[in-house]
Amino acid sequence: MKLIRCERGHYYDSQQHSRCPSCGVPGLDAGNSDAQMQAAPVDAMVTQVRGQAGVADIGVTVAMVRKKIGIDPVVGWLVCIEGPEKGRDYRIRSERNGIGRGADMAICINGDEAISRENHAYISFNPRKASFRIAPGDGRGMTYLNGEEVDVPMPLLAYDRIELGQTHLLFVPLCGEQFNWENQGE
């Protein structure tokens, strides 16, 4: 997937759309002069998908684990057990991971319109304490942990259930007391 950013800041898949679908059809007079703007040169506005092979993350904050060991390894997973993407897994990386529908989210959950586009919730991994936490995001939607509302950051334990919109996720940690990427080779 090759994401393009239009002049108005929308991201879209250039392989599916020739122009930004959010900006409307050029030449169609619907009272919106912005929709008639000329498209900017495509090469100047190409962006990247996080984790896309062969593309450097320019201007992106780098996690401390990545700085120390050279990669941004997986530290755990979320597995969709109910919802539009049932059966799919999502990788959790070190430090803070935003969850939302947007393609630029660290954990992008497509197909569930009840999940906010950006930062519905956060899952973080603290490499110093080898612990996970879940926190509410900036979005309108609620987040639940084992049926309880998440209104402040809360510890996340193995096989906890997380609900976002219509999606139910199971948390599966990799790092913890028995394994941590930072302690490898010591």
Automatic annotation (TrEMBL):
- Which PROSITE patterns does the entry link to? FHA_DOMAIN (PS50006)
Tell me the domain of life.
Bacteria
Among Gene3D superfamilies, the record links this protein to:
2.60.200.20
Q: Where is the FHA domain?
A: 97-150
**What InterPro entries does this protein map onto?**
FHA_dom, SMAD_FHA_dom_sf
Q: What's the name of the protein?
A: FHA domain-containing protein
Organism of origin: Methylomonas rapida
